[in-house]
Design brief:
alpha+beta; four-stranded antiparallel beta sheet; two-stranded antiparallel sheet
């Protein structure tokens, strides 16, 4: 338990599927073309740490219902970005998923999982330092010099959702509330 958040460690099954890609103009990043793909899903069985909150916890943190997905997603990215301070890893060694209502629990949840079959021990390290990890995540969210979110705090180069939605300030409110 970290404040109102319940922290779990366990084995998860992560299924991903590439459905397409975009070609972009190099300088302006303007989308030139979107290509759909029909590829089979890929499944990874690995270890994960995950944080669960109740909807009441999010409300107590001042996170409005419409901001919950962006708050969870931004907190996930910031936590993954700072994780190498606590585990011998690179942000490319882990993945994450955030969801406003996890299928297993119905609760707002942030998952951070090892990107290797069977796990590499990163999730266990994160679990063992959960409170310190969240404190460092809050510091990143608070101290970044950008106005609303950038690659230094909440944007991820490997985000499968195109870094949408992200709400840096709602994530900070949730993490600060969790830490008390």
């Amino acid at each position: 338990q970290v404040g109102p958040a319940t922290v779990h460690l366990g084995i998860v099954e992560v299924t991903t599927q590439v459905t397409g890609y975009q070609r972009k103009e190099t300088l302006t990043r303007t989308v030139l073309d979107t290509v759909d793909l029909d590829l089979p899903p890929s499944t990874l069985t690995t270890s994960a740490v995950w944080y669960e909150w109740t909807n009441a916890d999010l409300a107590a943190a001042g996170v409005a219902d419409f901001k919950v997905p962006g708050a969870l997603h931004a907190a996930e990215h910031a936590a993954i970005g700072i994780l190498p301070l606590f585990a011998i890893c690179d942000r490319w060694d882990v993945g994450g998923v955030s969801i406003a209502s996890a299928p297993q629990s119905g609760l707002p949840t942030v998952f951070i999982y090892d990107g290797y079959e069977g796990g590499a021990g990163v999730a266990e390290l994160a679990f063992n330092v959960a409170e310190q990890h969240l404190l460092a995540t809050a510091e990143v969210l608070q101290n970044c010099e950008c106005s609303s979110g950038c690659p230094s705090c909440v944007q991820s180069p490997k985000c499968g959702n195109g870094n949408e939605p992200l709400d840096r300030w709602a994530a900070l409110a949730l993490v600060n509330h969790t830490l008390g």
